[in-house]
Target: Alkylphosphonate utilization protein
Amino acid sequence: MEELPNCPKCQSAYTYEDGNLLVCPECAHEWSSSDNEDENGDDQKVVKDANGNVLQDGDSVTVIKDLKVKGTSSVIKIGTKVKNIRLVEGDHDIDCKIDDFGAMKLKSEFVKKI
Model:
């Protein structure tokens, strides 16, 4: 019987296969077995803008769509420039500070790299 690798997130030994994925029942982390062979659990998420350019911390981006600010009647207009972004985990994967709005989180699909 093939021994499965430990979970890269919590190091649990109780991983199991589910189709092409490996699953940890303790922390619910899922990953593919090819990821484990290539990177040894050191998975870095690649964040891309609307045009497919890879984004990195410190990049400058432009908003490509009018974005409503949740909880207010404000709108971030198309063409708004955002400098010195920071990439974070989650659905809204860009953390930034926008002039006249303050600190915000944006989705990478609504920006393009300058």
Notes: The chain has a mean pLDDT of 87.
